Amino acid sequence: xxxxxxxxxxxxxxxxxxxxxxxxxxxxxxxxxxxxxxxxxxxxxxxxxxxxxxxxxxxxxxxxxxxxxxxxxxxxxxxxxxxxxxxxxxxxxxxxxxxxxxxxxxxxxxxxxxxxxxxxxxxxxxxxxxxxxxxxxxxxxxxxxxxxxxxxxxxxxxxxxxxxxxxxxxxxxxxxxxxxxxxxxxxxxxxxxxxxxxxxxxxxxxxxxxxxxxxxxxxxxxxxxxxxxxxxxxxxxxxxxxxxxxxxxxxxxxxxxxxxxxxxxxxxxxxxxxxxxxxxxxxxxxxxxxxxxxxxxxxxxxxxxxxxxxxxxxxxxxxxxxxxxxxxxxxxxxxxxxxxxxxxxxxxxxxxxxxxxxxxxxxxxxxxxxxxxxxxxxxxxxxxxxxxxxxxxxxxxx
Length: 398
Ligand code: AMP
Ligand code: MG
Fold this sequence. Notes:
398 residues, alpha/beta, six-stranded mixed β-sheet, 18% helix, elongated, binds adenosine monophosphate, binds magnesium ion
């Protein structure tokens, strides 16, 4: 059976990169930059004061010396004249430094009387002056393609005059649930029915991974029904179905995918939860058949679909951070498959600690609700209290 790493390698080698579009700068928040950004401006554009005070020539300043205040310059204005020997110009934060001046003395550090100031201490050259280009030089490459744009990058783009930004298109991801037993949201489950969970967890996971979900609803466990829905996903860039991918006689997803024209590249990965999973290509678009149990569907999405969506969306890094934490209780993983066990993290006096989120069955969605991470545990192992666990971190640390 394939390892998780082998399966992921197969998947990542076969997913295409999305094309690009231009969006308004604020709309670029959370999107992925598609082209390098080279600055066409010096930031700041001219030397300016970082304090309210007096622009001076550093060489004129000594303790007790008096300077004549010969002018005034505010932010948004221009100096009417320069600073000559023995002179100072009143200046405000953000105002351009007058010619001749090379330092600013903050107003708290002078005695002002009439049109003179007396200094309490000498000023150093360049003190309280923000130099031209000290933040960004014209011609400098300031952002790389593949960067996830956060508030700071949005500010930088605006500073450099970009009202529009080239970003990767979000992959449109069709989500299909399969199963005769499923009652969708809005219908009360009848006898023998259970509520459809996976459509909603998977669409939410798609959004969190930067994709655009499309709800294909629920298909009954019939080849033609599933095949029809698969064909209906023609507008999507990706198809993710859940359930019906195991070995039972009602597990028809693989055959339905093949009938709809998909080529399947893998089936079954050595992991728990989540062994039955298939991945293939349908007219060069990636398709997944994930297992049906709600935790299995979420964990296999996390390990196989999310990295692929990030890669398609232009991101350079596709993996979550991994952290180490001490087991605060024994963590058993019986059986021959690697475990991905749901844990809660807590700060302890000896660093990070982890404990299981309770019952770990693949149908116990609450084990996922409380999870800060997935502990990766080798087969046939009981990790004893105090031993180190490797954890895929799913959320910000508490
Ligand atoms: P299957 O792989 O089709 O045998 O499904 C495995 C288990 O997952 C069964 O108990 C199904 O009832 C359950 N299941 C399948 N799809 C969903 C879904 N969309 N929401 C909640 N449970 C599901
Ligand atoms: Mg089923």
